[in-house]
Amino acid sequence: MKISKLAQVSPRARLGENVSIGPYTIVHDDVEIDDGTTIESHCVIGCPTELADGKSLKIGSNSLIRSHSVFYAGSSFGSGLRTGNRATVREKTVAGDGFQVGANAEFQGHTTIGRHVRSQSGVFVPQGTQIGSFVWLLPHCVLTNDPHPPSDVATVGPILEDFAVVCAMACILPGVRIGYGSVVAAKCLVTRDVPAGVIVAGVPARVRGPVEEVRLRGRNGMPAYPWPRHFHRGYPPDVVETWIRRFGEADKEGSPT
Predict the structure, then answer these.
(1) Using omega within 30 degrees of 0 as the cis cutoff, is the peptide bond preceding 210 cis?
(2) 96 and 31 in one domain?
């Protein structure tokens, strides 16, 4: 282990092999950090809160938490967690392998997240959100859960199904479901459920057609969606192999092989 002399690590924390902790980082009680994880400077790991109901924080193996990030107690993350700087993830967030949190993104907890979900800078995800696997949340998109803000009525988070893409600065209203493989265009306001396999745009958002009609720029008319046909960067080989069997793989002309 490589722990800075300027870090504060609780003796009750459980650290695996080859863990690195940077200066001025605080690791609280009842935190489990698996092998090969790096936590940079000025982070708070396992921030205590009564809302965690006494549950511990688990960081999976080979994770990278960049500087000034804050993780509350009571959450669990699979292997390969990655964050940008100043990410905040609150209690009772449960995420699978390969979860990525962009710089200045905020996940308010009580959220379930599938495998290999990628969120970029400035994303906001409220309590009660359900996110499937292989979902993309592009910069500064906002998900909401209060039907009448501010209020004490029951909140209800959005539901994002597998392979959904929410583009930059889009806003998803409480309880809205984004269907499997659908795309929410940039800067649109989604007020009602989105069916599977379509693209929506506008304020309010309306269905513009099936995602297969969207073409990649400069790629000889290659369909942009389903995106796993042509975009594999950073995903594990076994995941990519599964996608190729399921979706096919686009050749240079854009046709599945």
Answers:
(1) no
(2) yes
